[in-house]
Amino acid sequence: VEAVLGVERAKASLLGGNGRVIARGCAALGFTKHGPLKRNAPACDGKGVCCFGCPTDAKRSTNVSYIPLALRAGAELFPGAKVTRILVERGRACGVVARTTAGHALTVRARAVVVSCGAILTPLLLGAQRLGTRSGWLGQNLSIHPAAGALGEFDEVIQCWNGIPQGYSLEEHADEGILYEGSMIPLEMTMTMVQMIGPELVRLAESFDHVSGFGFVVEDTSRGSVGQLLGQPVIKYWLGDGDVARIKRGIDVVAQIYFAAGAKVVHTPIHGFDVLRSLDDLERLRRATIRAWDLDLTAYHPLGTARMGRDPASSVVNQNNELHDTPGLYVVDGASVPGSLGVNPQVTIMALATRAAEKIAAALTE
Ligand SMILES: Cc1cc2nc3c(=O)[nH]c(=O)nc-3n(C[C@H](O)[C@H](O)[C@H](O)COP(=O)(O)OP(=O)(O)OC[C@H]3O[C@@H](n4cnc5c(N)ncnc54)[C@H](O)[C@@H]3O)c2cc1C
Ligand code: SF4
Known about the structure:
Number of helices: 9
Largest sheet: 8 strands, antiparallel
Shape: globular
Radius of gyration: 22 Å
Number of domains: 2
Strand content: 15-25%
Oligomer: single chain
Bound molecules: flavin-adenine dinucleotide, iron/sulfur cluster
Helix content: 25-40%
Number of strands: 17
């Protein structure tokens, strides 16, 4: 998978001011496991707008990696077609019905059906037909890798938009379930995510060339679920005390890194501690009791809602990604990943998909 995606470490010359201050802070604190992040963008020239789609296709997204490979191997693609129903005959999956962007009904018959709608929509598609529901685990076991971070304001010019937005990582606390990844986002997105309003927000925007961002994901032990109301997904997730403590610790470490690198102010996503101006402020945060509702979090990695397992009583798909209760129907996406990974999941999902493809091909040639 890494070869197909062209995975390699980000070039140091493209880390920009954001990478510079994070590296300086990590070094000052004596951390040893930090450096350029592995990415799938070998031809990246650091344009810094990954959030909006790489303008030069330097990032090896599926549109320039796996989809062309599939087309060359004979796959037929129906972009924008939405599957509305899975065809099942005599208990075995045998195709799908979809609606094209032009509004036409499309029926595809197949010897194997692979559902890859992601951890939010896969359980809804299956659940609507009561497929994969026998164990009661469909739509349950949702993990999300809660994510948080902080902004540091510096006297020096950072110009975070020059360089790779997500280029630097710190793995010092991976055994605690915290993975730090440089994740500076453009001004217009940052402004929608900070807790400030009014003149303070305008001041931050106007001094944005002096601002750095660094964040982390947590290997969550909390779990949630995905259900449906009036045709819309309903996502529930209960952040437990252990994950709250991990998030608090992660924000503490990012603040330490910024102060060690020379930041004047650190903005955190913790209610009541939105602005830290010194290590004394950080010490006050450390002593405070923080609850889930004090945190302003995001999450990008839903997993586990059609989890894989040997036991049909406690899992939805078997070790070949095939539904325990519906032969010929496979779930190959983040939904089938059994638990929280603690690292960004794309490569794992793709590796499991490669393995599943081999298993399905073998089953079809039996
Ligand atoms: C902002 C953001 C940043 C991220 N950054 C990283 C990162 O740096 N590294 C990393 O490893 N991971 C990252 N991730 C996570 C990664 O993108 C996901 O974990 C991964 O894409 C999940 O793969 P999937 O196959 O489960 O689902 P998806 O990639 O979500 O694919 C599901 C597809 O199914 C389609 N679909 C849904 N319902 C239907 C239907 N009924 N009919 C037809 N099609 C349907 C959807 O349109 C979608 O294209 C990021 C995620 C986000 C949101
Ligand atoms: S920083 Fe992102 S958008 Fe820019 S060239 Fe590299 S991969 Fe593409």
